[in-house]
């Protein structure tokens, strides 16, 4: 007989095979669940494919903060700005933008900071526990990361943030110019200050990480159905997942469909979730593979450079657009110019390089939805914005706890779906 309060023997459908769905599927499978992943594409083919690979546990502040407000109009109006709105989509994105701006106040910022900190402070433990069980611990490199400052005024403006980070328990050290030179010789002399985060890590290949998780899942008997899920519902005790091809029956259904979650969640729960595709880009520079020892981001230029096995990945920029609008690959090319100014002459990015766009699943308060409905038969895990890679394994732990109806190891009330009811 199926135990309603344990994964063991349960038939579980996980919709979405990105980093969030993959970690959840593996976790529930390791607990004895009979798990099937449904994805209309392959493993990690969505936003999880080309991200910056940074396990960014230091990013404990939401995106909308009081400090952002005065900067935002100038940012949004400049075509080369790191943050932009696609004008053709403004009628679709502006309601989300209003909700986002309303969160840029002291109380919501403090609320979101506390909630993000609670996830990030245990995020790496969760990752290593999961990867250890499947022999893939080597896929995360814990070398730390560096945030650089060229402008002294910008660094001085960041000093209160350093204090606030320390108050949240984030380990960080200020580096002066000489220390930066010694540790990262390939940065230009224009870099005057740095903040080093020793407890962060990076992936040498976020897509390979997804493929390795999927392969481990398959080796353990997990099933993969490459179909588009149109709906999922319960007919009495029977859970039904309806795809574009056929219907499948399950005991429980997990929704982890990233930036495309709102339609399904609305059908299944009646709740309209304000989910926005926050598009970001990357440019891969193969020649610069060994140029940096760890991810280096720039506070002035607002992008990140991560050393990976196929090159130096330049990533970032935020573009608010409809999920189905054509990408603006000029924003990926723009990353090369940003990097040129930050790297010394021996380390300049060449022309060309693989360009990529992805849709970050973002909610106005910068918090994901991690919740359950229908007495725990529907489990929800989406909306991880800039931090999906970082928070995937802890999300899987919390979904497993919700699935077994045990008390969750941290307060998940900030991640409740009901905040949008
Ligand atoms: C440029 C950039 C840099 C980033 N850098 C970082 C970083 O350094 N660190 C970090 O932590 N995060 C980073 N992120 C964010 C991170 O990549 C995302 O938060 C994360 O990938 C979201 O994972 P997901 O599994 O929720 O979504 P996805 O990876 O998009 O997966 C969702 C899956 O669901 C499937 N799907 C959707 N709808 C359906 C349906 N109806 N039926 C079947 N399948 C469906 C899709 O095909 C897809 O495979 C970055 C993002 C971008 C764009």
Automatic annotation (TrEMBL):
Keywords: Oxidoreductase. One of its GO terms (cellular component) is cytoplasm. Residues 11-402 form the FAD dependent oxidoreductase domain. Transmembrane segments: none annotated. Pfam families: DAO. GO terms for molecular function: oxidoreductase activity. InterPro entries: FAD-dep_OxRdtase, FAD/NAD-bd_sf. Coiled coil: none annotated. It comes from the Bacteria. SUPFAM superfamilies: FAD-linked reductases, C-terminal domain, FAD/NAD(P)-binding domain. This is D-amino acid dehydrogenase, small subunit.
